What we know:
heterotrimer; A: 102 residues; mainly beta; two-stranded antiparallel ribbon; 10% helix; B: 392 residues; alpha/beta; Rossmann fold; 2 domains; 7-stranded mixed beta sheet; 6-stranded mixed beta sheet; 12 helices; globular
Amino acid sequence: xxxxxxxxxxxxxxxxxxxxxxxxxxxxxxxxxxxxxxxxxxxxxxxxxxxxxxxxxxxxxxxxxxxxxxxxxxxxxxxxxxxxxxxxxxxxxxxxxxxxxx
Amino acid sequence: xxxxxxxxxxxxxxxxxxxxxxxxxxxxxxxxxxxxxxxxxxxxxxxxxxxxxxxxxxxxxxxxxxxxxxxxxxxxxxxxxxxxxxxxxxxxxxxxxxxxxxxxxxxxxxxxxxxxxxxxxxxxxxxxxxxxxxxxxxxxxxxxxxxxxxxxxxxxxxxxxxxxxxxxxxxxxxxxxxxxxxxxxxxxxxxxxxxxxxxxxxxxxxxxxxxxxxxxxxxxxxxxxxxxxxxxxxxxxxxxxxxxxxxxxxxxxxxxxxxxxxxxxxxxxxxxxxxxxxxxxxxxxxxxxxxxxxxxxxxxxxxxxxxxxxxxxxxxxxxxxxxxxxxxxxxxxxxxxxxxxxxxxxxxxxxxxxxxxxxxxxxxxxxxxxxxxxxxxxxxxxxxxxxxxxxx
Amino acid sequence: xxxxxxxxxxxxxxxxxxxxxxxxxxxxxxxxxxxxxxxxxxxxxxxxxxxxxxxxxxxxxxxxxxxxxxxxxxxxxxxxxxxxxxxxxxxxxxxxxxxxxxxxxxxxxxxxxxxxxxxxxxxxxxxxxxxxxxxxxxxxxxxxxxxxxxxxxxxxxxxxxxxxxxxxxxxxxxxxxxxxxxxxxxxxxxxxxxxxxxxxxxxxxxxxxxxxxxxxxxxxxxxxxxxxxxxxxxxxxxxxxxxxxxxxxxxxxxxxxxxxxxxxxxxxxxxxxxxxxxxxxxxxxxxxxxxxxxxxxxxxxxxxxxxxxxxxxxxxxxxxxx
Lengths: 102, 392, 322
């Protein structure tokens, strides 16, 4: 980060408070991954366990009337760090564990 | 305005009650305990509509105050000595978080050896913590200053915690007549208005974040600017107080300084003793004046400089010892800095008095005036702090 | 199993009812597979938006709030390491006072929740927690227990289990990992005469969610002791966080039970316990343990299980079955 682009003391909020809460969602942590989860929608039973157990809130539960059972699960690859909990906990092996290619 | 006979401890408790404090968190410690008891009595009797948190330590008292203040409450506590230094970690944070809580401190010596008696080692340890520090010289002034402290602390130009410091025992336990002010009148002076950052589910913010090397410095500088603002705001607050209630003190108080050639600087209860000593020394033909420091942080450099113009020698009477420093008096070190940078013609002498409640007699301070007088007439200036009342 | 999601502050029957709203954003810098975030995500869902979080120093605080960022979509405050209980006491007292004076709406419950680590709770924050519990502040205090000081790099705490390697209980010629038995925080909390205390575990999200709801509705302080696997400090693959958490329950290492207004109840009975070696073999921190040490750890667990069976008055956690 270049020092000149950062705000000066007059522009910074009093007491180092953050008002734009939840703004870590703008941070891309995809670079942490060595492997990535890939959801195979046909195999997915919509059991929701991947969504439940994700520490990064990186499994998205998408409401979609066209999808089977009205919803589907997607990986938010910007926030997925590749821990693999979803892959390991999926009871029907509907998540594949794929090496990242960069 | 009801006139009551109050100790300074009680006066401070009354001021918190009359300021409509919302949350009190207090832990007993000599000599501030009676103030904590009085506050409990007010809440118990329904005279004060506050939550009283019976914390299990001073550290938790300060922490609970931070929590309360960060939720929008007017928050207050009293403490002293070991209790104050136990709080100190949290007090630095309260300042960094810019929370306008107010503390009454009945200043007392620090262990070891253990001493329950008065001096100002406790408050001296908080000099750089980022809290405003008022020294008062009477129960009335303590009452008025707690109210003023809320005014200044809550001012959007400031948003810093404040301490009202009064000498343990000499002030804390001595009864004087105090004019109190009706709560409604006090609240006209300090209306309840939450201008600082608070926790509110309707408008969530995060308080107490990590400041990495890209940001920490800027936030510390903001605190310094707030301190600088506090100087002006404190003067304004004092003038407004005087306009509304008829009593004003200034942030620095001169006594017989107009024609003075030498001066003493004192603070707290012993400024009263120094005043009598000035009168006595004047009778002996010594042209001495007195400056009473009412606000130590922020330090009123400009105001002091103005008062010291034309003075040849200034002696600072400190009630604490900054061990191992170039001088022992903590205020003397500040005055020394002012002189070194702005008034090279003034000479400084540092004295320590009243350490661990050592008696401070008028004649001791008359002797101080005489020493200053001798130095002004060419006697060699001592390079070390002169301990008054110490047995050889 | 596809019942509708419920709103916050309501108990659920299955995990399909957990609300979708997230109160903690992604993009934080917690390690891969961090147990804290599985727990905190769901506890916040249970609490809902009318919640103030007090977060003493620790992993959770540091990874979510480096200025100018914050992951917290509910009001959040961090003050120091050892004062979560006291800060929360002040927040709660202020809410009470300001509600009484009409500054805050009188009829809305604002939840006050502490998320603290084991260092900030069982060690340096112990006194502050005790004061908060004893004084009866209506606060839910959640201990996120990863069994060591992980934020400073894996040093032992009063919650580190027997046998565990940490950087301050290293394995050497004389020391073989931690040799003392951890504090029993539930019993300590209950001894403060509080209405509700419970253990929770991220592998059991419905139990965890419902206990949070009960804790929030308790008429006084509530204490939740959360088991939070730490892949970094415990030396296991981050994909195994839930597996490790589950095994802790199945071995009786972590009994899911509650104390609810005077009544003890085991929420997840384990009729046939797995031996503790099944649990420790997944974790590098126990790798050095001798047979004798494993036996000692098994005994410690057996004693704890026996104590809980006594508390509930029947054998709900059964014997070890190889």
